[in-house]
């Protein structure tokens, strides 16, 4: 059974080594220090600051941060800040890791602030936050399942990242962290500029590394090139608009960053087996 805790005033944390979900809605400015287990920090409103391992990281609205076990953390937040924390026990992490790797792997989480760089995790976090704030009945019925889902997604993501770094022959944790931060920044640049004219030159210039190195690093870690990832995300956005809006095919194509309807229709059919019109009719 997953524990649930809520903080609205001055934090008085209970044990942060259990499998637990914590919702915070701060009525005052706060600053608190504690030692935690594996943790995912998700900000719903405002900005939270975390100090640990001699570094300071800010997590803003819709961003999340994953921290390793036995982290000594100082958290600061202003009045009105809201967020969710997921505390994952080492036992749970090891069980999930053993299931997905046959017990042959161990790893440290790469502690980088992320915003939509993993859409599955981001979408699930948004769902959990919405249920907690707007449908407590369904939330309480599903809390155990939701907690396990987010735990598995975190471990799967980190396992895949670690495996891809091994292909690159990168061993040092700090090196992995810096390289992964670059890839995360590239993915977030793509997600934030979907309807713009994006090229590898533009992304590499914005991130500050050579386009060759960005292409190689991005491809090894994500299993697809930056421009393939761009097309995938644009198509995902287009599918959502076809499902839930009445916008014309032309408007959807332009809104999702495609130059013209003909190109959009061809690439959409290549990936889904249907033209945009056929897809909408079959809903």
Description of the structure:
The protein has helices at 90-101, 119-134, 136-167, 173-192, 200-207, 211-222, 226-244, 249-255, 261-272, 276-281, and strands spanning 3-7, 20-25, 30-36, 38-45, 47-52, 55-60, 64-67, 71-77, 82-88. It has 283 residues and is of the alpha+beta class. The protein folds into 2 domains: 3-167, Jelly Rolls (Sandwich); 177-281, Homeodomain-like (Arc Repressor Mutant, subunit A), CATH 1.10.10. β5 and β6 (55-60) form a beta hairpin. The two termini are 38 Å apart. The model has no long low-confidence stretch (mean pLDDT 88).
Describe the structure in brief.
This protein has helices at 90-101, 119-134, 136-167, 173-192, 200-207, 211-222, 226-244, 249-255, 261-272, 276-281, and strands spanning 3-7, 20-25, 30-36, 38-45, 47-52, 55-60, 64-67, 71-77, 82-88.
Number of helices: 10
Q: What is the name of the CATH superfamily of the largest domain?
A: Jelly Rolls
Number of strands: 9
Q: Helix coverage percent of residues? A: 40-55%
Q: Within the CATH hierarchy, at the fold level, what is the topology of the largest domain?
A: Jelly Rolls
What's the Cα radius of gyration? 20 Å
Distance, first to last CA: 38 Å
- Summarize the main sheet: 5 strands, mixed
Mean pLDDT: 88
Strand proportion, as a percent range, falls in 15-25%
What CATH architecture of the largest domain do you see?
Sandwich
Low-confidence runs (pLDDT<50, min 5 residues)? none
Tell me, what's the shape? Answer: globular
Number of domains: 2
Biggest β-sheet: strands ordered side by side in the sheet? 1-2-9-4-7
Q: N-to-C SSE series?
A: EEEEEEEEEHHHHHHHHHH
Report the structural category.
Answer: alpha+beta
CATH class of the largest domain: Mainly Beta
